[in-house]
Amino acid sequence: MTATIGELSRRRKTIILVTCCLSLLISSMDATIVNVAIPAIRSDLGASMSRLQWIVDVYTLTLASLLMLSGALADRFGRKRVFRIGLLIFAAGSLACSLAPTIEVLIGARFLQAVGGSMLNPVAMSIITTVFTGRVERARAVGIWGAVVGISTALGPLVGGGLIDALGWQSVFWINLPIVAVAFTLTTLFVPESKSTQPRGMDWLGQLLVMTVLFTLVFGLIEDRPRMLIITAVALGGFLWHEARHRTPFIDLRFFRSVPFASATVIAVCAFAALGAFLFDMSLYLQGTRGFSAAYTGVLYLPMALGMLVFSPLSGRLVGQRGTRPSLLAAGTLMALAAAGLTRLTPETAIWQLVILFALFGIGFGMVNAPITTAAVSGMPLDRAGAAAAVASTSRQVGVSLGVALCGAVSGAGLWWIITALAVAILGLGVAANTEWAYRSRDRVAPLLEQKVSAHAG
């Protein structure tokens, strides 16, 4: 159960939603804006390929590892309190990134930034589900939330390109500071404090095991250490065994009995792995192989950004009217076409071809976010919706991490064929998750979760 916060005016609810979306804007944008800065950072700090990958992946992996823990801490100690702490840590990390004199310091500062970022998205989603309690208004707020993920992801490369050429790569971190200041002020003035009346216990072993799984997996890929994957497999087995037996697990494995939820989780990994690989590889291609400036690279990303900006909210409306299937079918098809086209990429590929392929990828990716969030929380009890959404958010960050790691392990056409396969998987899961069999599995899960909550309450 969640402590009641009283009846709020429509205006105040709108301000709270805007505040939560601002936190999502900076934390999601930061996962992509740095990609455009990668060539400049490599030149300025003399970084190797693996260090460049860690600039992105230490951020996304830390987010993925700590999102669930931060959500649990917010339920226990107060969502507003943890949210404001997260904003301050994120700002401190951003400032440290802009002042980093070496690549190692930059990677460390990115870790700090991600610790703060982990306190933003899941806590903001908990605040939203607490404030928007009506079914219709809650669905609309979650739809807007999902659309902002696509919008913020799209703005990263576009904004970053102009900033880098004008002010240097450090400026991609400066931009966070005024946004944090606005979000912190609005949170202080308008967001009510709330916490769970029956907070879940802390599963520290589960937290440790999931961090071990994620970091060893990505480390093995980036550093080309296949033996590290043995540790990954052992940690994963231990995690599944432990979670199935823990009274208040880190991740309730019962969620995955819902086919729509399980599909949304895998779709999030596939879509964001494709995006992570796309942005990282194309930034190196455009600025390294082709010799374009960061600003021109940002302009070339414009068709992709516009596709995300326009079709993310349209997808949210479509999901509200027709369900998740049409959006997922469109997303998988368009992303597959774009990735398959990029298998023929050469140093002489015409700009007009890049523009078309970037637009197709952007439109496809723009269609995927709203159905991920909607499928993750649909059918879940109110008290578990925040945890379900946090798993979806974690899956997004895991996907980006894996996509960037793949760029070092696979290159050229091979990378783009893998991305094509990921897009086809989105297509297939979009069909499977919208069958009567899948709906029945979803409907069976909610009562199980409610029974578990009631048992703990007793």
Tell me what you see in this structure.
The chain starts with 9 loop residues before the first helix and ends with a helix. Residues 453-458 have low confidence and may be disordered. The longest helix has 36 residues, at 10-45. It folds into two domains: 10-192 and 248-457, Growth Hormone, Chain: A; 204-247. Helix 3 (79-99) packs antiparallel against helix 4 and helix 6 (135-167) runs antiparallel to helix 12. It has helices at 10-45, 49-77, 79-99, 103-117, 121-131, 135-167, 171-174, 176-190, 204-222, 228-245, 259-289, 294-300, 302-322, 325-342, 351-366, 369-377, 382-409, 413-432, 436-457. It is built from 19 helices and no strands. It is an all-alpha fold and 458 residues long.
Summarize this entry quickly.
The chain is 81% helix and 0% strand.
Chain-wise SSE layout:
Elements: H1 10-45, H2 49-77, H3 79-99, H4 103-117, H5 121-131, H6 135-167, H7 171-174, H8 176-190, H9 204-222, H10 228-245, H11 259-289, H12 294-300, H13 302-322, H14 325-342, H15 351-366, H16 369-377, H17 382-409, H18 413-432, H19 436-457
Helix pairs in contact: 1-2, 1-5, 1-6, 1-8, 1-11, 2-3, 2-4, 2-5, 2-9, 2-17, 3-4, 3-5, 3-8, 5-6, 5-17, 6-12, 6-13, 6-16, 9-10, 9-17, 11-16, 11-17, 11-18, 13-15, 13-16, 14-15, 14-18, 16-17
Task: Please work out how many helical segments DSSP would assign.
Answer: 19
Helix content: over 70%
Shape: globular
Count of individual domains: 2
Strand content: under 5%
Can you tell me the residue ranges where pLDDT is under 50 for at least 5 consecutive residues? 453-458
The radius of gyration over CA amounts to 21 Å
CATH class annotation of the largest domain: Mainly Alpha
Query: What is the CATH superfamily of the largest domain?
Result: MFS general substrate transporter like domains
As for the CATH topology of the largest domain, it is Growth Hormone, Chain: A
User: Helix/strand/pairing class, anyone?
Assistant: mainly alpha
Terminal CA distance: 13 Å
Report the biggest beta sheet as strand number plus sense, adding barrel if it closes. none
CATH architecture name of the largest domain:
Up-down Bundle
Mean pLDDT: 85
Report the strand count: 0
Helix and strand element order: HHHHHHHHHHHHHHHHHHH
